[in-house]
């Protein structure tokens, strides 16, 4: 298992093929580093909840929660029309957007995002990319983004590439 990388503020890309341990590493960061936040973007076991209920359940665990940012992201990601729907009624992409709003509005010192662009439409990918680009220079927050490859449009402070054994 890959050792936890030293995480300075900014954007950190964790890349690798399927089965290299990207998700396992993000989970471990979320469990071991104080102030870190990781969510399974598919929101398993939460089918009966509405987006607002998901965010309301997450908020007590996130002392730096930004309600205005939550609203702005929900609007930008076209989720306002779905706020009264239960998650099982949403597409995979919309469900992932609900989780992304929670992660981004959570205000965690370290935010772990696993394959953030999967199942998102182009407009939502642009919203997320713009958000991460704006956060890249944040003085005290770290964004750990796992995917098959690092998005070339983002200014990565660190890139960690995992091989088949989950080692960099």
Question: CATH class, anyone?
Answer: Alpha Beta
Level-2 CATH architecture = 3-Layer(aba) Sandwich
Order of helices and strands, N to C? EHEHHHEHEE
Question: What is the count of distinct domains?
Answer: 1
What class do helices, strands and sheet pairing give? alpha/beta
| Rg on CA atoms, Å | 15 Å
CATH fold title: Rossmann fold
Please provide the count of β strands: 5
Q: Main beta sheet: strand number and arrangement? A: 5 strands, parallel
Fourth-tier CATH superfamily name? P-loop containing nucleotide triphosphate hydrolases
Percent helix: 25-40%
Secondary-structure blueprint:
Blueprint: E1 10-15, H1 22-32, E2 36-38, H2 51-58, H3 67-76, H4 92-105, E3 110-114, H5 122-135, E4 142-147, E5 158-161
Parallel strand pairs: 1-4, 1-5, 2-3, 3-4
Helix pairs in contact: 2-4, 3-4
Question: What do these coordinates show?
Answer:
The chain has helices at 22-32, 51-58, 67-76, 92-105, 122-135; strands at residues 10-15, 36-38, 110-114, 142-147, 158-161. The chain is of the alpha/beta class. A five-stranded parallel sheet has the order 2-3-4-1-5, with helices on both faces. The protein is globular and about 40 Å long. 32% of the residues are buried.
